[in-house]
Design a protein that fits this description.
11% strand
Length: 295
């Protein structure tokens, strides 16, 4: 009886998660469709990828962008299933169909809902809404197809090339084609603005805005260093015992994570505590835990 109850709870939890995924995917693709139909396409902005190609196809042949996105993605998804397996396909296919449908409905039944007064503002808001839509999609483990799948397939055989670089390369190719089709460099520059803002919005949603700096401080005075940091700042520190590879002498490594606004103050404290300290600094995209964002 207990096993049946546990099984029923797990099944109910999976159903609720699936329904939540569907709702979030739908909201995200609605925002993405709005970005394309209201802001980018009416201003001849082709922001890379399959959507950019579909925008160019509409400009040249008058075919609805939603239909082109759906048709262009079919062979890509089939190739992706053949090379990568079927696990990614259901969620990705759902997002492709929903986004294509929304774009089709926008352009068919709401053709007057377009903004063409200022192309730069259109590029900026197109980036915001497309970034929002894509982030909601990525957060729940799906993609919108197109260059994402192509990058995964190429990455399988060329693992030394990152997916980010492959997607950027594909976007740049589409942008150059757009500049040739429109016979102007301005649409290409607006497309770069859209892509940049979209990437910033995606990073903000996926990794948060609570970025920081991680400092690894190699010092002969680890105890004094930890005391100086914890006494003057609301930050903790971790001390690791180490041995110099050349001198074979004991040294301490103090690790501290701080907000960007605190970094320079802590660096001055480190310098005043041990002028011979060796500091390595790296950017942390997200910080979770006490003193930062809750886990």
């Amino acid at each position: 009886m207990k096993n049946k109850n546990n099984s029923g709870k797990k099944s109910g939890s999976r159903i609720r998660k699936l329904l939540l995924d569907i709702v979030i995917y739908t909201v995200g693709m609605f925002a993405y469709a709005g970005a394309v139909s209201v802001f980018t396409a009416p201003n001849n902005i082709a922001p890379g990828g399959v959507t950019g190609l579909a925008t160019l196809i509409q400009y040249l042949f008058g075919i609805n962008i939603g239909i082109s996105i759906l048709v262009l993605n079919i062979p890509i998804v089939i190739a992706g299933i053949a090379l990568l397996g079927w696990r990614f396909a259901p969620r990705t296919a759902f997002c492709i169909v929903v986004s294509s449908t929304f774009i089709f409905l926008f352009e068919t039944y709401l053709p007057n809902m377009t903004y063409t007064e200022n192309p730069l503002l259109a590029a900026m808001f197109g980036g915001v809404f497309s970034g929002l839509g894509l982030a909601l999609c990525f957060m729940r483990g799906a993609t919108t197809g197109g260059t994402d799948i192509i990058a995964r397939m190429v990455g399988k055989y060329k693992p030394h090339i990152t997916q980010g670089k492959l997607i950027l390369l594909a976007d740049c190719v589409v942008i150059l084609i757009a500049a040739a089709v429109y016979r102007s460099a301005e649409p290409a520059m607006y497309a770069l603005v859209t892509i940049f803002i979209s990437s910033v919005v995606i990073d903000a949603f996926l990794y948060g805005l609570d970025k920081g700096r991680m400092m690894m401080i190699v010092t002969d005075k680890p105890d004094e260093m930890c005391t100086a940091i914890t006494k003057n700042f609301p930050r903790g520190a971790t001390m690791i015992n180490a041995e110099g590879a050349y001198s074979r002498q004991y040294r301490g490594i103090v690790i501290c994570v701080a907000r960007k606004s605190e970094y320079y103050k802590i660096r001055r404290t480190v310098s005043s505590t041990d002028r011979d300290a060796f500091i390595m600094v790296s950017e942390v995209t997200e910080v979770l835990g006490k003193g930062f964002k809750s886990i």
